[in-house]
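writing this on my phone so excuse typos. first protein, seq and then structure
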Amino acid sequence: LWVRVEDQATGCFSITNLTLIVNELPVLTQLPGLDTCDAVTLNDGVEVFDLTSLAEQLVNNVPGISLEYFASQADLIANLPIVNPGSYSNVEIGVQTIFVRATNDTTGC
C-alpha cells in the first residue's frame, strides 16, 4: 500500500509504503458439554468441573493460544474471567453455557 502525505499549506508531499499485516484469529472447536451427576449427599444441582480439561481439543492442539473462561456473556463483555477454571462450580442449575476467549500469544489476536 502506498501512502501520500501532503502539507496543505505548501503543497509539499512525501510518498512512502505501508505494509498491512492481518493476523488470523484463533479457531475454536465446538465441543460436547461437560456433565456429571449431582452428589447424592447434597442434591443441590451444583458440581465442580475442570473447564480446562478439554483445552487442547478446543484449540485443535494448536500451541500458543491462551484461553479465558467466563460464566456468562455479561462477564465476557465486562472482562470478568472465572478465577479458577480448573475447579469451577456451576452457578446455574441444569445447563449452563460457558464462554471462552482464545488469544494468540504471539499476535494478541
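second protein below, same order as before
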Amino acid sequence: MPVIFLDTNLEKNSDNDRGLTRYLYGGDAAYRLAQEIILGIGGVRMLRKLGYTNIKKYHMNEGHASLLAMELLKESKVNVEWDFQRVKNACVFTTHTPVSAGHDHFSCGLVEHLLGESFPVEIIEMLGGNDRLDMTLLALNLSNYVNGVAKRHGEISREMFPGYSIDSITNGIHSYTWISNSFKWLFNKYIPGWTLDSFTLRYSLGIPKEEIWEAHVESKKLLCDYVNKETNIGMNHDVFTIGCARRATHYKRIDLVFSDVERLRNIATQVGKIQFIFAGKAHPNDWPGKESIKRIFSVLNQLKEHIKIVYLGNYDMELAQRLTAGVDLWLNTPQKPLEASGTSGMKAAHNGIPSLSVLDGWWLEGHIEGVTGWSLGAKSVESGNDQREAQEIYDKLENIILPLYYKEREKWIDVMRFSIAFNASFFNTQRMVQQYVLNAYLH
C-alpha cells in the first residue's frame, strides 16, 4: 500500500507556508486550520494529481481530515446542486476522542479568511455548526458510516453526538510487528501459518508451559540488559517487573501507583520484590504531564533502597517493542472514560504479558479477571477515584499478583497463555481491517 506524505517545505512556497507542516502540535488556531486544509483539501488534490481518480471510499481518521469531504462536495457539484448523498456514500469517519475538548472547531471568520470563497459560508455552517466550524460535525454529516474505536467509546460517542448512527470497531495492533523474536520462534514451531491468520494464536493454549516461560525469560533478559546498559541501575532478571509506557499526560495518571509510597515499599519488602520501568514523552506545553514525570523521579529517589525504578528517555517504537515484550505485568491507569481504546496492553498480550488496567477502552472487552489479567475500578462509565483505584493496585499486587508470580509459577504461566489465546488472537489488525471492510468499506 502506498503511503504518501504531504510537505509544504518547498522553495516556491512563502516562508510562512513552508513551516505549516513543520510541527504536529504547534501554533495557534490559524496554524491548525491551515494544516487541516492541507490534509483534507490538499490531500484530495494530491491524489488527483497522482492519478487516483476512481477511489470508492475515503476514510477519515478524526476530524482533522474532514475538509476532504468538502472538497469532494465541491467536485460533485452539478450546476447549482450539491450532491450530499454521493459524498456521504464515499466517506467513512472514525472518531477517536471521548472528550469534547479534543474535537477541533474554528470560527467562521477564520474559516472564511483562510478558505476565501472556496466554499460558501452557509454550506459550512449548515454542515459544521451554526456559529463555528466543528470538524467532527462536518465529518459526521458527510459520512455514511461512522465508528468509535472500542465498544465503550462507541457508546460515549453516541451520547456526545445524539441523533447520529455511530458503530464501533475496536482497534487492533499488527501481530508480527509487536511479537518478540523468542515468541515468533515459538509460534512458528507450534502454530505454523500464524503470520497469515492471527486468529490461530488461540492455539497457544497448547504450547508447553515451560517453553512459554523460556520465551518470556529471553525477552525479559534482553530488556533488563538494555536498561542496565542505558542507566546502570542494576535491573534484576529474576525480579517481578512492571512496565508503564505511554504519552505522559495528566489523565493517563502514570504516577498513580506511587500514591502511597510507604505501602508500596512494604509490599516490595514483605511480599515480593518489584521493579518498575517507565517511558513516555509529554507534549512540550503539557505542564501537568511534565509534573507527572517529575513526580516519578522524586519517588525514584525515595524508594531506591528497596525498589528499582527507571524512566527511560527517547521513547520510540523500538523501545516500545522491548518494553511490551520484556516486562512481567503491564500497568495502565487512565482516568475513565478518557481512554478511547488504548493499544499498549494489546502489544503486551501478544507476548504473554497480562495487564493490570482500568476498565476502560479495549480492556473492557479483553479483561477476564484472573485469566487475562486484573481490573482496576468498576465497569461503569463514571469517572474513577484516584485514591480508591490506587489502593486497589496495592491490594491486588499484595494479595493476588505477587503471590501468584513468586509462589504459583504454573498458574502465572496459565495467565500468560490465556493473554495470548484470548487477547492476541482478537485484538489485532487482521480482525480490525476485516471489520472495516465488511462494515464500512462495503457498506
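The first strand starts at residue 58 and ends at 61. thats all i got for now
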